[in-house]
Amino acid sequence: MTKVVITTDRTMMTNHHGKEFIGFMTTAPPIFMPEWLWMRISAPKIRTDERGEPWQAPYGLRKIEAALLDAGIDAAVIDPDHLSKHIDKAKVLAIGHHDYFALGPPSSEWWVLTGREPVNAKSFRKLMERPEIKRAKRNGAKIIVGGPAAWQWLYKPDLMEKWGVDTVIDGEGERVIVEVVRKALSGEELPKFIQVGVEDVPSLQQIPLIKKASVNGLVEISRGCPRHCRFCSVTLRPLRHYTLDMIERELEVNRRAGLKGCILHSDDVLLYGSDGIYPKPDPIIKLHELAKKYFKDIGWSHFSLSAVKYAEENYRLMSRISDMLLEDDDYIGVEVGIETGSPDLAERIMPAKALPYKAREWPSVVIDAFSIMHDLRIVPAATLIVGIPGERPEDVTKSLELVDELRPYRSLIVPMYFVPMGLLMNKEWYRAQPTQEQMDLMKACLRHDLFWIDDLARWYLRKANPFLRLSISLFISLVKRAASRYLFI
Ligand code: SF4
Question: Nearest 10 degrees: CA dihedral of 465, 467, 473, 477?
Answer without folding.
Answer: 180
